[in-house]
Amino acid sequence: MYHIPGDRTRPVLLLPGMMQDVEVFIVRGNKSLAITLATSGYDVWALNPRGVGHSRKHVHLNPDLDSKFWDFSFHENGYYDLPAAIDFILERTNERQLSAIGYSQGNTMFYVLGSTRPEYNDKIKVMIALAPICFLQHLKPLVSFLLKMISIIGNLLRSIGVEELLSDNSLLKRLFQMLCTQKGIGYELCTQGILFAVGGNHPDELEPEFLPKIFVNYPSSVSSKNVVHIGQVALRRKFAQFDYGLEQNLALYNARSPPKYNLRKVRMKIAMFLGGNDGISTIGDTELLRDELPNVVDYHLFSGEKLNHLDFVWGRNMDKYLFPLILPVLIKYD
């Protein structure tokens, strides 16, 4: 975890999305979320998800040699890593509760936590979900197709022993970063051709000059199991634990199919912020999630062309659109 010290009675935990590290919360400098929170007096903590460049160590396993290190998805992130981080912060601050902000898959982990370890609901003052990800049933055709293909490729790679995707030394990642930072072609190919096509088009918020800062660390390493798990959620149209196949499911779950996460157990207060131009966290899927969660205290839709999936962490005007709405929520439940 990274830490920007502030008022210890006001800890707030930030979690980035898939294939991201916590630098997404500082990449815009003084107009970034972490800096905004710090200058507002909060004690800011940011958790690098397991496996990304800044979270690539283990007591016993070598990530470069031991495939067992990569045997995790967002389930293990939510069931093991997140409660460990929460307890660490509360011990250091001598507080009983903290606030949290999760972006994309960073808030998915809280749904896993609240449903499988419900005692942790009482340790969260409020969880602000930016571009919420849980159900994946109302995706645009291109995004739906890509998720299916990624899931197939992930399963294939796992079958031949490839457990890590997009490592820092991989040819694919180096090629991606080299192309995406080229003037002209980089913006057309990577931003317009990939990021906007998947996450939603909003060029006003992501200028060409900003790309080199993004692609210094993005995309970061991800486990093939996590990619497969996301694909399962989309293909099976339910938010459930990892499907290992009939034999392993019977041994692990005592059932033919993996159990669904019981979202009614997620009792923590949740404030949801979504963009009407988001191609991944769609309005339809977010409404499904809102209706399942028992304690949604705020639901804000940025309508029209404002905010795609990327803007919540990379947009250059979030200090105008987003942060003035986040801070009052944090203050209300402090």
Automatic annotation (TrEMBL):
Q: Which domain of life is it from?
A: Eukaryota
Give start-end ranges for the coiled-coil region(s): none
One record GO biological process: lipid catabolic process
Entries under InterPro entries matching the protein: AB_hydrolase_1, AB_hydrolase_fold
Q: Which Pfam families match?
A: Abhydrolase_1
One example GO MF annotation: hydrolase activity
Sorted alphabetically, the keyword list is: Glycoprotein, Hydrolase, Lipid degradation, Lipid metabolism, Signal
Residues annotated as domain AB hydrolase-1: 11-132
- List, alphabetically, the PANTHER family matched: LYSOSOMAL ACID LIPASE-RELATED
Q: Which family does it belong to?
A: Belongs to the AB hydrolase superfamily. Lipase family.
- Name-wise, this protein is AB hydrolase-1 domain-containing protein
